[in-house]
Amino acid sequence: MGLIDQLNAPPHSKLAVVLGTNASGKSELGLRLANCFGGEIVSADSRQVYRGLDLGSGKVTPQQAGTVPHHLIDVAEVADYYSLAQYQQAAIRAIDAITEAGKLPLLVGGTGLYVSAIVEGYELVDVPPNEVLRAELENLPLAELVERLEKIDPEAARRIDKNNSRRIIRAIEIAAAGFAHSAGRKSSPRYDCLQLGLSWPKEILEKRIEKRLQDRLAGGMIEEVAGLRRQGVSDIRLEKLGLEYRYITRYLRGELGTLDELRLQLGIAIRQFAKEQITWFKRDRRIIWLDTTKDYFSEACGHIRAWREAGERS
């Protein structure tokens, strides 16, 4: 069965989704739910697919994971290009295998596009990277990139985040290969999904972000990036990985003079990214946002039990 045939299959399998912002605690919640319901976790994080991106991407350690199997972590080399279509195909295989084993699959992560690709069942075109075109586009200012996309794929330009140059370049690349970007957004949902969202009031989330950043810096995150550079990962590639990898690379090049400046600039970028995550997820009104002022683990368990029982009655 091909990917499109798989995606066109009628929704039947249950998939629990735990999503949220950076530093929201979604990984910990996913682990607790997996332990409670005998589940396995499929990561929905665009950087955790790469080997060597550990502290910066927030991967759970083997000790934290315990006996809970995790999928779609460490499946590609940092230097390789891992497309959304590759992720979707691998995630579908993992989810279906977990279901066939009689366990509950939990999709856990904060990469909105990854979550939506599975929940909505995007019918994607897998266009390989065009390095020549990318080299040309990466030298253009953002306004020019937007104008170029508007000319060759107006629908993609209308829907895309116009502040995200990486996504704009990818949209141009797809259109240049002869595919309308919008063709990759037709949806054929495959799963019966329960989406549970985790976030915090702004002031609390900012404190959580700052605490996590301090812990990761103290835990060796700068050394992780320095090690990747020694292994031959280019600064250009590290910049493209965003957030921690981008700002630590700049620090190691001397563009951020002090550790305090790194912490300040990186903290601002992470908080901004958390806002973008919320904006993405808030568009989906099916997401149940857990009440973090109460026992949200028990609340999540209640939602999962009710959802599974409703499925058994139908």
Give your account of this protein's structure.
The chain has 314 residues and is α/β, with parallel strands linked by helices. The chain folds into two domains: 3-200 and 285-313, Rossmann fold (3-Layer(aba) Sandwich); 204-273, Helix Hairpins. It is 54% helix and 9% strand. It has 15 helices and six strands. It has helices at residues 3-8, 26-37, 62-65, 84-100, 112-121, 131-137, 142-152, 154-159, 165-176, 202-219, 221-230, 235-240, 243-252, 259-282, 296-313, and strands at 14-20, 39-43, 70-71, 104-109, 192-198, 288-289. Strands 3-2-4-1-5-6 form a six-stranded parallel sheet, with helices on both faces. Strand 2 (39-43), helix 3 (62-65) and strand 3 (70-71) form a beta-alpha-beta unit. Helix 4 (84-100) packs across helix 5 and helix 10 packs across helix 14 (259-282). The radius of gyration is 20 Å and the shape is globular.
Any chance you could write out the topology, listing elements then pairs?
Elements: H1 3-8, E1 14-20, H2 26-37, E2 39-43, H3 62-65, E3 70-71, H4 84-100, E4 104-109, H5 112-121, H6 131-137, H7 142-152, H8 154-159, H9 165-176, E5 192-198, H10 202-219, H11 221-230, H12 235-240, H13 243-252, H14 259-282, E6 288-289, H15 296-313
Helix pairs in contact: 4-5, 7-9, 10-14, 11-13, 13-14
How many domains? 2
**Cα separation of the termini:** 27 Å
Q: Indicate the structural class.
A: alpha/beta
User: What radius of gyration results from the CA coordinates?
Assistant: 20 Å
Top CATH class of the largest domain: Alpha Beta
Helix count, per DSSP? Answer: 15
> Biggest β-sheet, characterized?
6 strands, parallel
* Low-pLDDT ranges: 1-10
- Globally, the shape reads globular
Q: At the third CATH level, what is the topology name of the largest domain?
A: Rossmann fold
Question: Taking strands numbered 1, 2, ... along the chain, how are they ordered across the largest sheet?
Answer: 3-2-4-1-5-6
In N-to-C order, the SSE pattern is HEHEHEHEHHHHHEHHHHHEH
Helix content: 40-55%
Number of strands: 6
Q: Overall mean pLDDT score?
A: 91
CATH superfamily grouping of the largest domain: P-loop containing nucleotide triphosphate hydrolases
